[in-house]
Structure formats: structure tokens, C-alpha cells
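Subject: for your reference before the review

Hello V.,

The reviewers asked for a structural picture of the protein, and I figured it would be easier to keep everything in one thread rather than splitting it across files. Below is the amino acid sequence we used in the manuscript, unchanged from the supplementary table.
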Amino acid sequence: LEMAKATAAILEKHDIPYQIAFGTLLGAVRHGGFIPWDDDFDFLLFDDSYDKATEILAKELPSDMFLEDEKTEPKYFHAWAHVKDLKSECDCALFPQDNVYKNHGLSVDLYKLTKIKAKDFAAYRLEQAMSYIDRRKKLGFITEEDYEKKKEVFLSEFKEREAKEKMLDSPEKEILAYPFTYGKQEINEVFPLKKYKFESVEFLGPNNYHPLLVSEY
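And here is what came back from the structure prediction:
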């Protein structure tokens, strides 16, 4: 919570929009804070201000936190940055590949939302998925056999999603997409952002939480 408060305070100070998401948003709506078994904090940032946000966070985070990305972690393979804590240590049992990073502190995810046309969503998702396994293969974290298996799965998912997109009512409509799962948001459901109570503080979130949570859960 302290990491999230520090991150949000810096973003709001510089008028950089963000929204809480996933388990964090679900926790705010359903519990007024953390889901009892949740173990991280999720922010969504927007592509047109993402680089500015990470640059400022890297400079202004408290001394016991740092921005973890390809600039600070030589083995970095994620498509989004993290705010990482220097006072704690965790073991990533669910995602063991994360243990290769040199710092094992608590983490706040900074996912990037990218504005694209609805008809391009399947292609965007495939590109992001392939980039992810390409980075892991280049760093020696997955074998050629595993790479080919994952590639086959991604291509199959792409064809299935592409077929659905051909039936869209508004293929030219702009949406917001993030680089994992098949999550996407309608722009008019995100803006204007509004505050959600989370434990003892408030964070910005989407104007209409329901579609995002239904699509994920």
C-alpha cells in the first residue's frame, strides 16, 4: 500500500493519468481495499504518457524503491515496468521466471494501455505475445522446443480471435488494449477517471468498473 501511495502521488503531482485495475480494482469495489489473498498492486498507465511516467518515477520514487525495467535489470523480459521495493524479499512461486531478476522485493505492476482500432486487436495481442517469448528465448530462459509450442498456441489463439473480429459491428472503433490476456477497454468506460476508496486512501480508476471486471473475472 505504501508503494502504491508513493507511485500514485508522483503520477498525480505531474498530472499523469492512471487507473487501478484487475485484483486491485476488484478489491476496491468488493472489499474497499485488498482482497485478503491478493499479493500485489496493479496500475494501468496510458501509452501517450507511459514513457514520461516511468522517467519521472525513476527519478522521484523514495530511496527504498526503484523502477525496474530494461534500464535497471539486465535480464528484463516483461512488456511493462515495475515499482520494486528494496526492503522486502519474495519468492515468485506462481511465476517462477520472475525469480531471475536480481531484486526480489514486493512489486507494483505498471501495465501499459495502448489505443488501437478494434479490428487490430488480435494482431496486437499476437505481436505482444510473440515479443514476450522472443525476449525470453533471447535471454536463454526458454528452450527452442518450448518456444515453438508457445508460438503454436499463440497463433491458434490469434486465428480464433481474428475470426471473431471479422464479425465486429464497429471495426474502426478505437479501444484500449493491454499486452497480456485478451483484455481491452472501451474508452468511454474509462474516462473521465474517478476515485475509488482503497483501504485508507483513494486511487483513480475507470469511470465504469463493471465491464472491465466482468471481462477479467
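For the response letter, the relevant points are probably these. Residues 25 and 51 are 23 Å apart (CA to CA). The chain is about 40% helix and 20% strand.

Happy to draft the paragraph if you're swamped.

O.
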